[in-house]
């Protein structure tokens, strides 16, 4: 520090508590604000008081409505003063108070006067204040002035009007759109910010007119835009036009030359905007990328952190889809690992991890090790994630990467960070068979000294599943049993289960496991003792959980695939009785929210006997109850699936009807939820007349009419069909709502005696294969897949033709099958050329089905798909192929 | 007015979500929010605390620095005991933001005649508030040139007697440059 500075600091020590607003208090300031009402206005004093009020508001204090109104009224009195400084503070104050419509009227005339003043600064500010506080009617009065102001020769006034236009466009678009000509003139302004504001407004006025935007971009890219900010806008609009024009032209993209020319602009913000736009073009080629990458590479060695950050962030994104294009920057990138800005360093590391080749992995890991010590946990997690994907990319390098992960696992860190590391190790164990033993060993060491119960139990569970299948299972026993001695009850219970799994799978260890489990019988926690007792009996063959050893293992290892909320709801419903609780009766469908018609169902005269149970009952339970209470449906057996409601009418029509499809083994019930939105009508004897000629396998067996449908009180009518047992029959149904309509006097509620028969056309509905499939998740797809009979597997390949995108094709197949996407595989990475999607579900007849879909896309958007199915019933595997082949 | 804040999509226009001027303990000197992302006073304070602690240990004195978290990018610079921040969504052009920050710090330097510290800033809070008001209007960048910003604020100064009457803007700028050069040589 230079001398004078030091001296000044010394001076200040004496009055270290000095604060111009020290001890300031709202009540006192509002008292002071009375000075605004003085007949003789003291501008300086008034400005100070306004500043004090603004200070209080800025610190987060608020004025009550009365206080606000009072201050506002006294501030308006200050318009009498001619002092420009005071006026400026008043403008600020009025904006900050955001007055109500009634109060606004008090100031509009004064502000309109300022808007026409000779002082440019008054005009600019009055426009900004007015546009902030007025409503549509006042806008109509001042529109003329605003239009003039847009083309004012003073750039500050023009900008104020244009920016106000951008704000007003949100509330009064029809007014602002009339200013188009003036705005267009302003785009040609010599003042750089006027040009920027004008272009922003012009685009927003026209943004819904594609042709107009294209014309705008075409004319302006020829070179009349000087302002760098405006140039950035133009780049955004141009890339929008490119995006919308699609890839129909082979090779040449419109406006690409313009984007490329912007890479040579003198303003860095324009270069960055253009480079980023190019890298984000869909299906960008490496030839198109090269010039953009080159300018970004130059930025990497800039002295400005913001520039380095912007460049490395963009390159990091490019590396996800085009790693090869970024490799040229690797040397510059490596020097950024030591950047003092840790965001930049982290982005550099993760980029390198994406672009690195197999030979550079070891060197990179060495550099990262030094780096990890001094960054925050949130950055470390990003790095760990990048290392996991690197390891999956170069499985041969698992040894050094696994070592790295185990080293950082031993160091200090919070839960999220440790969890990210453990998750990564678990992924590697799952996907790289060679890494299994070394990975398990690292995890064993970790739980010796792990403070997070959640992680310890996860790891113990994994060890129970994987440990017995390793070359030397006995070496893990010590680690597991140590947990029983040293840990809290939750971890001890998990360790007991793990021990039991070793005992079940490794016969040679069984006697030793028995000894250890018996010790657990004396544990202080009852869950631990219960588990030990149960496992001792099961493994000792005393308790019968299954006929064969296979079933015993199923009991120990089987994944628990019933949603816990459903189980909870069913258990709450269960009334203790002679019949034991049957876990197979718990619905497996995952339901997001209980549907609204549950309440209506309960109100029906034939509704369930007794009060319905608590709100946790899932929709399917509610459906099942209300359906089984209708005697005609009682014999249909167990409800397999109910679809989500499908609307059969447009929104806001006279009658709203939606349908829910209930699927049984040999029947389908269509439940029509009807509501009457006309207060003057009462509908009676409501039915749906169905034409099932396009649904050959279905035969109508029963129609349950809705006796009366008053205004605003929804009700249901049902139609039941018979179909071949267990067969997923599909078809189309056309529907007409039939009813007797009676006039109602809405005032008295009196209903006319005589009704008229009438009908109302509904939209068609379809029963599809997806209706026969329950979305049932599996906890671990790979385990579930391997647990199924390979004999049941059916594989075939399909060409899906030209599709909009890979993601669209993936979604289409998922919705045809109606299955549950596992492990987030329904998400397709942008720009990827291939994708694997994992699906699980239960097909009618309670047949578990797993599907592995591999998609690939060729140049002209041709999508090909390989479909592999495993299921409990090979016929169903064939059926899935039929569904896809016919879809 | 419930609709004071409007968030514009990226296609429309570069948008600033807030401008913060905090002291060396993270307390407010002046702040202005342009986005609904933080609806309550508590949410704003939490954001300020988080920005302040995340950037505290960095060296943002000679060059503006940048950080990214929770879906925001923040460019910032420290001068004496004042911490200047400009925030935007994480898809914004960092260099546009940097130009806003530069407009803010340099115009404040001009207005406070290089005495950029908390005490002076509070003593001239009216100028600081007007300065922020001239840089961004409802999230849209109004002006980034420090001379223009300071010029617009100073012509309004009370009595016409405070800072800029005895010093023209070009003079002030010259002293600022000189001062900057000196601080670089240190």
TrEMBL record, chain A:
Residues 588-600 have a biased composition (Basic and acidic residues). Pfam families: Adaptin_N, Coatomer_g_Cpla, COP-gamma_platf. GO terms for biological process: endoplasmic reticulum to Golgi vesicle-mediated transport; intra-Golgi vesicle-mediated transport; intracellular protein transport; protein secretion. It is found in: Cytoplasm; Golgi apparatus membrane; Cytoplasmic vesicle, COPI-coated vesicle membrane. Residues 770-884 form the Coatomer subunit gamma C-terminal domain. Residues 27-539 form the Clathrin/coatomer adaptor adaptin-like N-terminal domain. InterPro entries: ARM-like, ARM-type_fold, Clathrin/coatomer_adapt-like_N, Clathrin_app_Ig-like_sf, Coatomer/calthrin_app_sub_C, Coatomer_g_Cpla, Coatomer_gsu, Coatomer_gsu_app_Ig-like_dom. This is Coatomer subunit gamma.
UniProtKB/TrEMBL annotation, chain B:
It is a peripheral membrane protein. Its main location: cytoplasm. InterPro entries: AP_mu_sigma_su, Coatomer_zeta, Longin-like_dom_sf. Residues 15-155 form the AP complex mu/sigma subunit domain. It holds the Pfam family Clat_adaptor_s. One of its GO terms (cellular component) is Golgi membrane. Keywords: Cytoplasm, Cytoplasmic vesicle, ER-Golgi transport, Golgi apparatus, Membrane, Protein transport, Transport. GO terms for biological process: intra-Golgi vesicle-mediated transport; intracellular protein transport; retrograde vesicle-mediated transport, Golgi to endoplasmic reticulum. The keyword Methyltransferase does not apply. It is found in: Cytoplasm; Golgi apparatus membrane; Cytoplasmic vesicle, COPI-coated vesicle membrane. The keyword Transport applies. The coatomer is a cytosolic protein complex that binds to dilysine motifs and reversibly associates with Golgi non-clathrin-coated vesicles, which further mediate biosynthetic protein transport from the ER, via the Golgi up to the trans Golgi network. Coatomer complex is required for budding from Golgi membranes, and is essential for the retrograde Golgi-to-ER transport of dilysine-tagged proteins. The zeta subunit may be involved in regulating the coat assembly and, hence, the rate of biosynthetic protein transport due to its association-dissociation properties with the coatomer complex. Belongs to the adaptor complexes small subunit family. Oligomeric complex that consists of at least the alpha, beta, beta', gamma, delta, epsilon and zeta subunits. This is Coatomer subunit zeta.
């Amino acid at each position: 520090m230079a001398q004078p500075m030091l001296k000044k600091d010394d001076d200040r020590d004496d009055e270290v508590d000095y604060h111009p607003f020290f001890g300031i208090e709202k009540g006192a300031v509002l008292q002071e604000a009375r000075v605004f009402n003085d007949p003789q206005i003291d501008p300086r004093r008034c400005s100070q008081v306004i500043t004090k009020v603004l200070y209080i508001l800025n610190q987060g204090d608020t004025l009550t409505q009365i206080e606000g109104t009072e201050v506002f009224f006294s501030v308006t009195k200050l318009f009498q003063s001619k002092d420009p400084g005071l006026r400026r503070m008043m403008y600020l104050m009025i904006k900050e108070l955001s007055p109500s419509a009634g109060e606004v009227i008090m100031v509009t005339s004064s502000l309109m006067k300022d808007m026409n003043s000779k002082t440019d600064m008054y005009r600019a500010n009055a426009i900004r204040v007015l546009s902030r506080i007025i409503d549509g009617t006042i806008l109509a009065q001042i529109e003329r002035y605003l239009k003039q102001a847009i083309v004012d020769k003073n750039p500050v006034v023009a900008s104020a009007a244009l920016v106000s236009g951008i704000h007003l466009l949100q509330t009064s678009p029809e007014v602002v759109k009339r200013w188009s000509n003036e705005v267009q003139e302003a785009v040609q302004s010599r003042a750089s910010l006027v040009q920027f504001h004008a272009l922003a407004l012009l685009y927003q006025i026209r943004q819904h007119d594609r042709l107009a935007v294209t014309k705008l971009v075409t004319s302006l890219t020829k070179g009349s835009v000087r302002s760098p900010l405006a140039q950035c806008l133009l780049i955004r609009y141009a890339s929008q036009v490119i995006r919308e024009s699609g890839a129909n032209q082979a090779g040449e993209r419109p406006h690409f030359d313009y984007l490329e020319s912007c890479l040579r602009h003198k303003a860095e913000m324009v270069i960055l905007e253009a480079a980023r736009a190019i890298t984000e073009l869909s299906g960008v080629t490496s030839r198109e990328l090269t010039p953009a990458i080159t300018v970004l590479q130059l930025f990497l060695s800039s002295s400005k952190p913001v520039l380095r950050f912007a460049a490395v962030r963009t390159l990091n994104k490019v590396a996800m889809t085009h790693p090869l294009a970024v490799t040229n920057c690797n040397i510059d990138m490596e020097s950024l690992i030591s950047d003092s800005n840790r965001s930049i360093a982290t982005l550099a590391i993760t980029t390198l991890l994406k672009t690195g080749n197999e030979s550079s992995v070891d060197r990179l890991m060495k550099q990262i090790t030094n780096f990890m010590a001094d960054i925050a946990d949130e950055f470390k997690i990003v790095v760990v994630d990048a290392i996991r994907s690197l390891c999956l990319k170069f499985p041969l390098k698992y040894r050094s990467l696994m070592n790295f992960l185990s080293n950082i696992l031993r160091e200090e860190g919070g839960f999220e960070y440790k969890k990210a590391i453990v998750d990564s190790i678990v992924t590697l164990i799952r996907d790289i068979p060679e890494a299994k033993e070394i990975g398990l060993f690292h995890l064993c060491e970790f739980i010796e000294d792990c403070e997070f119960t959640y992680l310890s139990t996860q790891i113990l569970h994994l060890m129970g599943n994987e440990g017995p299948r390793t070359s030397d299972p006995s070496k893990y026993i010590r680690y597991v049993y140590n947990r029983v001695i040293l840990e809290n009850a939750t971890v001890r219970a998990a360790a007991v289960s793990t021990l039991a799994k070793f005992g079940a799978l490794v016969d040679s260890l069984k006697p030793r496991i028995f000894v250890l489990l018996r010790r657990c019988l004396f544990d202080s926690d009852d869950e631990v003792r219960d588990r030990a007792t149960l496992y001792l009996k099961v493994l000792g063959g005393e308790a019968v959980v299954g006929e064969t050893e296979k079933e015993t293992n199923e009991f120990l290892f089987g994944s628990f695939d019933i949603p816990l909320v459903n189980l909870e709801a069913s258990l709450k419903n269960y009334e203790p009785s002679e019949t034991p609780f049957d876990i197979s009766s718990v619905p497996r469908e995952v339901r997001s929210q209980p549907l609204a018609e549950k309440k209506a169902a309960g109100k029906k005269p034939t509704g369930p006997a007794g009060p319905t149970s608590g709100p946790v009952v899932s929709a399917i339970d509610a459906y099942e109850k209300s359906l089984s209470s209708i005697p005609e449906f009682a014999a249909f057996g167990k409800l397999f699936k109910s679809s989500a409601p499908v609307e059969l009418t447009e929104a806001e029509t006279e009658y709203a009807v939606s349908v829910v499809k209930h699927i049984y083994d040999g029947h389908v019930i269509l439940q029509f939820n009807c509501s009457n939105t006309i207060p003057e009508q009462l509908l009676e004897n409501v039915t749906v007349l169905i034409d099932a000629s396009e649904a050959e396998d279905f035969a109508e067996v029963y129609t349950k009419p809705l006796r009366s449908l008053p205004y605003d009180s929804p009700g249901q009518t049902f139609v039941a069909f018979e179909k071949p047992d267990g067969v997923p029959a599909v078809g189309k149904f056309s529907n007409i709502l039939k009813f007797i309509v009676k006039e109602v006097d809405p005032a008295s509620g009196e209903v006319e005696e005589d009704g008229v028969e009438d009908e109302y056309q509904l939209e068609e509905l379809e029963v599809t294969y997806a209706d026969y499939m329950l979305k049932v998740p599996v906890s671990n797809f790979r385990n579930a897949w391997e647990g199924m009979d390979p004999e049941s597997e059916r594989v075939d390949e399909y060409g899906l033709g030209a599709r909009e995108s890979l993601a669209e094709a993936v979604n289409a197949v998922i919705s045809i099958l109606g299955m549950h996407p596992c492990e987030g595989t329904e998400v397709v990475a942008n720009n990827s050329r291939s994708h694997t999607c994992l699906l699980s579900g239960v097909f009618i007849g309670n047949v578990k089905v797993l599907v592995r879909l591999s998609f690939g896309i060729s140049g002209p958007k041709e999508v090909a798909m390989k479909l592999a199915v495993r299921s409990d019933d090979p016929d169903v595997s064939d059926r899935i192929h039929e569904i896809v082949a016919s879809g | 007015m419930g609709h004071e804040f409007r968030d514009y999509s990226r296609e429309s226009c570069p948008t600033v979500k807030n401008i913060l001027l905090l002291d060396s303990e993270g307390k407010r000197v002046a702040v202005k929010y342009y986005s609904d992302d933080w609806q309550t006073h508590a949410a704003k304070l939490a954001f300020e605390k988080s920005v302040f602690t995340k950037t505290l240990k960095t060296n943002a004195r000679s060059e503006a620095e940048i950080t990214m978290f929770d879906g925001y990018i923040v460019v910032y610079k420290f001068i004496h005991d004042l911490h200047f921040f400009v925030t935007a969504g994480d898809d914004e052009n960092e260099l546009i933001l940097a130009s806003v920050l530069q407009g803010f710090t340099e115009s404040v330097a001009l207005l406070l005649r290089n005495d950029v510290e908390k005490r002076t800033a509070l003593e001239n809070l009216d100028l600081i508030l007007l300065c922020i008001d001239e840089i961004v209007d409802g999230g849209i960048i109004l002006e980034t040139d420090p001379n223009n910003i300071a010029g617009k604020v100073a012509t309004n100064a009370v009595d016409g007697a405070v800072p800029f009457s005895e010093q023209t803007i070009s003079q002030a700028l010259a002293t600022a440059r000189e001062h900057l050069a000196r601080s670089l040589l240190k």
